[in-house]
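Appendix C: a fully annotated inverse folding record. The material below is reproduced so that readers can follow the format used throughout the book. The structure is listed first as tokens, followed by the designed sequence.
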């Protein structure tokens, strides 16, 4: 009986922690920092975010989206469930057709690299709309010089294993998205997501308020710098994430939704900016992460 009671208590506490991620009153924010995180989707831990289901599992009707995060977001945009936002301003919505036009501009850059704009809205910046307001700006040097982030130098490849479908025994990926509207491949390598790290004085706990998911274009030839395509408000795409499959590589009985993956932190990322301050190396990013963990641990120490 005692063990059963402890188990129920633990499960109840877990449910509170998960539900509180997006439900904190601004007046209860004892401490808050805006953090831009980078997820390399080619890492093995992150690969299920874009891995497509193979033909033997296509009859699973539990999930309406089975082709990964990027495909799910674009499908929802195409169906008119929400809008995207321009990388230079989160107040400028983009329709599906407008995003397609930006995609064609990126494709044109491959054949005309002389005209490629290396400061094309490649990240998030402070917009002057208060602590909660952020915009996406273009820094020429790639490190929030004018509030933008782009490229992250050559540090992003340090020590990370790249993923291919063959690693999991999967068939080669061939996209049939949108009847050939565009090739999603260049957008399935890297994403950024922006969140507020909040220490809530009522819960006495650190919560993560995810605000945006930013889609990044990467040059397949690894020559041109990265460019931000668009951003999605996290609260707008929750329904789509709830219906999108995250494939458990080790257990077919334990698939999850992409929303669960984000809110349970089942991925690897590193910070590239904290409250407008760029982090130029992986070592600095890890140092700042550890400092944040220590800050949370000692915040209520006496």
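Designed amino acids, in order:
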């Amino acid at each position: 009986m005692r063990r059963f009671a402890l188990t129920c208590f633990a499960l109840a506490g877990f449910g509170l922690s998960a539900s509180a991620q997006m439900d904190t009153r601004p007046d209860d924010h004892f401490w808050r920092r805006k953090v831009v995180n980078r997820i390399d989707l080619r890492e093995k831990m992150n690969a299920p975010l874009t891995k497509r289901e193979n033909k033997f599992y296509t009859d699973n009707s539990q999930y309406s989206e089975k082709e990964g995060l990027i495909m799910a977001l674009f499908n929802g945009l195409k169906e008119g469930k929400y809008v995207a936002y321009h990388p230079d301003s989160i107040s400028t919505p983009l329709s599906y057709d407008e995003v397609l036009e930006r995609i064609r501009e990126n494709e044109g850059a491959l054949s005309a690299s002389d005209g490629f704009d290396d400061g094309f809205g490649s990240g998030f910046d402070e917009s002057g709309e208060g602590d909660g307001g952020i915009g996406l700006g273009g820094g020429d040097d790639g490190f929030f010089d004018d509030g933008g982030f782009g490229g992250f130098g050559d540090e992003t490849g340090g020590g990370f294993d790249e993923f291919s479908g063959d690693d999991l025994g999967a068939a080669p990926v061939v996209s049939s998205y949108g009847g050939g509207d565009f090739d999603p491949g260049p957008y399935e390598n890297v994403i950024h997501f922006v969140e507020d790290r909040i220490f809530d004085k009522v819960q006495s706990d650190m919560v993560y308020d995810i605000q945006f998911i930013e889609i990044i274009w990467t040059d397949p030839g690894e020559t041109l710098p990265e460019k931000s395509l668009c951003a999605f408000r996290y609260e707008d795409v929750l329904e789509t994430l709830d219906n999108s499959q995250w494939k458990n590589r080790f257990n077919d009985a334990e698939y999850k939704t992409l929303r669960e993956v984000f809110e349970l932190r089942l991925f690897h990322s590193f910070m590239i900016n904290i409250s407008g301050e760029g982090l130029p190396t992986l070592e600095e990013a890890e140092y700042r992460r550890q400092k944040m963990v220590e800050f949370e641990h000692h915040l209520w120490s006496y």
